[in-house]
Amino acid sequence: MALQKLVEKREEGYFNVEKYFTSHTGVVSIKVEEGQEVEEGDLIYTITRLGLIKKRNSGINGFVKNINKKIEDTFCGYYVHVLDVEHRLTPEEVQVIEEEKYYDFVMSPQGAQYFVTSNPGMPPLISVGDIVEKGQIIAIAMVMKKRREVIYEGERGRVAKIYFMNGQQCHAGDILFGIIPKPLKKQ
Questions:
Q1: Average pLDDT over every residue of 49-70
Q2: Residue 173: which of 85, 100, 114, 106 has the closest Cα?
Q3: What is the domain range of residue 27?
Q4: Same domain? 121 vs 80
């Protein structure tokens, strides 16, 4: 499904917005109205091509906004905007967004299974609150039974958040760690 997820800041607060686009060519039939409340998994539109109907469902609970009514029941090309679903973030979600502004993110270099321990039963290489230095091993990636060490390349900092569970499969570019840079003390 062609989808863009983003957080928008407006006068009335922060909103999580999912923008839906056609994932291939076909005739679009929109199944919701603007302002309608939808839950995760609700049918929002279909796209039909060569007699095959593909259903598109909402990925979040929220309200339908910005329906592209010009494409209703017409043949559309690839990656045409269909509609948006959005919801206001809770105070807790806003706090996370505000905190993450200060993070340097460590992304997964490749699709792999990631571990924070060097071997099963061993203590973690790093934990939330630990200070990390450039060149330090922060995770282990396993690809086709081969171990690869993930080396921290950023500036000295404190681990603020670990975004994966030990042993979780991650895609290339997924966020692994949030690090808050911490300058060295002057002597």
A1: 94
A2: 106
A3: 2-91
A4: no
